[in-house]
Amino acid sequence: MSHILILGGDGYLGWPTTMYFSNRGHDVTVVDNYFRRNACTELDVGMLYPVPSLMERAKIWYELTGKEIKVVIGDLSDPEIMRSFFSGRVEYSWAVDKKFTGIPETVMHYAEQPSGPYSLINYKYANITLTNNLLVTNNLIFALRDFSRGTHVVHIGTMGEYGTPNIDIEEGWLEIEHKGRKDKFLYPRQASSLYHTTKIMDTDLMWFGVRMWDLRITDLMQGPVYGIETEESEISSQRSEVRGRTAGRADSHELRTIFNYDEIFGTILNRFVVQGVVGYPLTVYGKGGQTRGYLNINDTLQCVHMSEKAPAQQGELRIFNQIMETFSVNDLAEKTQRIGKKLGYDVRIDHLENPRKEAEEHYYNPAYRGLLDLGVKPHYLTDEMMEEMFRVVEKHKDGIRKDVIFRGIKW
Ligand code: USQ
Fold first, then answer.
1. Does the predicted TM-score (pTM) go above 0.90?
2. Calpha distance 293→160 (Å, rounded)
3. Number of domain units in the chain
């Protein structure tokens, strides 16, 4: 089994990915600077339930499974921290065995400020987004250039890089015929937030690294993710109950991922379910015709796994569109309302003036075959899936803060 380094392993997707690979027998090292937690505290946005620190999570995971996840609390925008994972000078914040595991075969790169609204609060948050996201990616490609060009990077990009063009969206590349000659280019990109713009810049940096130094990179253009439980969070909650470790821990689900429902860090469907449960009218922005490609958190795990198993070639920037189905905001609101009503909630739908600048009615036809061809089996947004989300959220209903649901951060 290979050694996997997970950058940004404390976040909504990073921590489930960490457990997923550890559970499958990989050596996993995880690094995070607690950006997300600190930003939630600073901006006072709360979370659905408290989660233990990354070091505590690694310890609990070790107690429950006997599998070690090595942890580094550190800021990857510092090049020396990034380089330490390749030079062998890494200082683990927590590990059972503090001996260097070796250069990773795969790096999963999630270490980015992931929110459009955060990036547009004001120039200060815009700068944090730009510096963090671009420095981390640049530090990574230089560390690979200098220490390990054979390491495969799996980077989480975003479908938002493409925007909503009036033509079909291809998987990363577009063949263009111009004045009788043909060439292949990165598909035109035009993001709708500053955060999404940093992901375009990431792609450019990584494409540069591939052209100059033959790096091998998979860039996954992901849509908004929804969901809470993964196989590993369920296993761990069963085991922790069996061991009677529940006292004082978050509802015995201590290894569940961080779950935000606020305007800044919550993605739309997670927000809608929470709004449905607490009787807050669903916050549809504008006309609600905004269409995006969505996926279940369990499919993020499958997608990064399939990408890891069948890596990009040396000197290849491989791009996949990581979505499983498309919905408009109105589709999601109606679905939430229908399922909520079935479960006894009076779910109302509100159309707020859109704080964002985005097309509210538009053509949207993205290709997304690549990951399915690699063997990903989608978990679609069925009624059962939504009911399950309602049930988990219901358990934490009393702690939900209505004041963080909508602030109206303007673009
Ligand atoms: N929206 C509403 N009401 C809400 C929240 C969102 O109508 O209360 C609308 C937004 O205006 C947007 C759509 O729902 O049109 C999706 O919004 P979102 O906040 O769920 O997603 P977004 O800001 O695009 O960002 C999220 C993740 C980001 C990821 C991106 C994928 O935070 O990290 O890159 O989804 S994508 O949307 O494909 O660019």
1. yes
2. 10
3. 1
Contacts of 114 (CB under 8 A, 6+ apart): 11, 12, 36, 195, 265
pLDDT digits (tens, 9 = 90+) for 133-163: 999 999 999 999 999 999 999 999 999 999 9
Task: Establish whether residue 16 lines the binding site of ligand 1, counting it when its CB lies within 6 angstroms of any ligand atom.
Answer: no
Q: Are 16 and 257 in contact (CB under 8 A)?
A: yes
Would you say the CB of residue 114 lies under 6 angstroms from ligand 1? yes
Predicted confidence (pLDDT) per residue in 285-300, tens digit:
999 999 999 999 999 9
Decide if 246 is catalytic.
Answer: no
Range of the domain at 250: 3-260+297-323+367-378
Atom of ligand 1 nearest to the CA of 156: 34
Residue 356 lies in a domain: no
Nearest atom in ligand 1 to 159's CA:
38
Q: List the structure tokens of 214.
A: 């033959």
Q: In one letter, which amino acid is 92?
A: Y
- Which tens digits make up the pLDDT trace of 307-362? 999 999 999 999 999 999 999 999 999 999 999 999 999 999 999 999 999 999 99
Flag whether 289 is in a domain.
no
Question: Per-residue confidence at 411, pLDDT binned at 50, 70, 90?
Answer: very high
